Amino acid sequence: MNSNHSGDEIQRLIDLLAKLPGFGPRSGRRAALALIRKRETLLEPLARAMAEVAATVTECSVCGAVDTRDPCGICCDPSRNGTMLCVVEQAGDLWAMERGGAFKGRYHVLGGVLSALDGISPEDLRIPDLAHRVRSEGVEEVVLALNATIDGTTTSHYIADALEETGVTLTTLAQGVPIGGELDYLDEGTITAALNARKTL
Do 183 and 93 share a structural domain? Predict the structure, then answer.
């Protein structure tokens, strides 16, 4: 028997919740208990939503975002400005940019950043796809909205070199994004200010 006297199924739920970012065993137990206490209003709808997402989630073949359709909703939206492309590290960064509502163009999700430490090279990222999109989609400005880390800066410089011959205008987010800061943790006002104050790389 487990030390917390819960059944195997409940313990499995706790163990899985504990693996979520920002969670641990204690948070997993608290979350599991909250879900069980609100079985009809929380646990069952959550289980259905998770099953639906698991069955339908896909990666957009155009921009690399996660959605339940391909191409994704943003790539299919005719009101978006196709001449502006915002490059982000992960889908979570795209969601952070969208929360602010300031960017009206399209996105390109790299799937990470260059990292010698983690063995991530240009071939592991969607940089060749980015260069192809800039050439084929009539892109005039590429906004590099990568995290303000050493790896993010290195990746920005690599992209600038890779796109140099295309003649596209390259800009980066400016004031508001702290050094070492990650987009997903910033509030909408900070992201909007940084986007509005972007500068040429």
Answer: yes
